[in-house]
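Kindly go through the entry underneath: sequence plus C-alpha cells. Please state briefly how this chain folds according to its C-alpha cells.
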Amino acid sequence: MLGVRKAVSDMDFCINIKKIVAIEAVNPVINLDGHQERSFSKAELPKLADLKPMQRRRLSPFAKLAMYCALEVTKHENQPLVSVFSSRHGDLHKTSTMLHDLALEEDISPTAFSLSVHNAVSGLFTIFTQNTQASTTVSAGKDTFFMALVEAYIRLKTGKHEQVLLVHSDQVLPSPYSQYADELQVDHAVALILTKDNFVGQRLSIKKYNNISVTSDDSLTELPQAVSFYRWLSDMTKPQELDMVANQWKINRLNNE
C-alpha cells in the first residue's frame, strides 16, 4: 500500500452496539475470471424455521441471509424497532436474471420485479414481523455499511428512538458482473442493534477521514466493510483499533460510561 499522507477527520461520532449477529461464507472457490470468491451453496443457506413456508418461498438467497440476521438479533426484543437496511448491490442475482430475460424479449414476473428492488427485504421484514416502525434503505458503494451506521446514528440522535436495528447484506456478484469487482466477493449479512444506553454492549468511536491518498494493488483481496468490522468486533484479541485505510475509516473500542 503506497501514498498514504496525513489525514484530517471530517466525521467523528460514537455508537453503542447492544447486540450483533453475522453470517458469512467461508469456503473459497475460483470464479470464471480466475478470482477467489466465497458463496453459500443452497444447502448452506439459513433454514429460517421460524417463518411460515409461504414466507420462506418468497425469499431469494440474498433475502435469506438478511432475514436470518435480522430475526436472530431481534429475537428477544420486546418491541418493534425502527430499522436501517443496507446493501451495496441489492439482490443483483434476481435483477441480472430479469435483465437476461428482457434481452431475450421474454416477459418478466411482476413478483420477481417487486422483490428485486433495493428495499424489498426491509419491506418483507416489516411484514413478517408486523413491524410498523419506519425503515430506511441505504446504498453507498464500498462505504455502504458505514454509511448505514451513520444513518442509524442519526436516527438515535433525533431523540425519538432508544434503539435502532441495522441490517446489512450482500452477495457475490453474478458472473456477468464479476469483472467489475473491486473487493473480495463474499456472501454475508450482519445485523446489529444500536442503543442510546452508554452502559449497554460495546461502545465505539468512529471517524471518517477526507484526505487520505492511497494507492493499493490488492483490492481483490480486501474484505467488504461489514465482514472486516464484524470479525474485528467479535474477536477481543484483535487490536483496540480497526484502521481501514483504503476506506478512510478508523474505529476504536471505548470504555462504557
Notes: Residues 1-6, 213-217 have pLDDT under 50 and may be disordered. Residues 13 and 184 are 28 Å apart (CA to CA). The first helix runs from residue 53 to 57. The two ends are 37 Å apart (CA to CA).
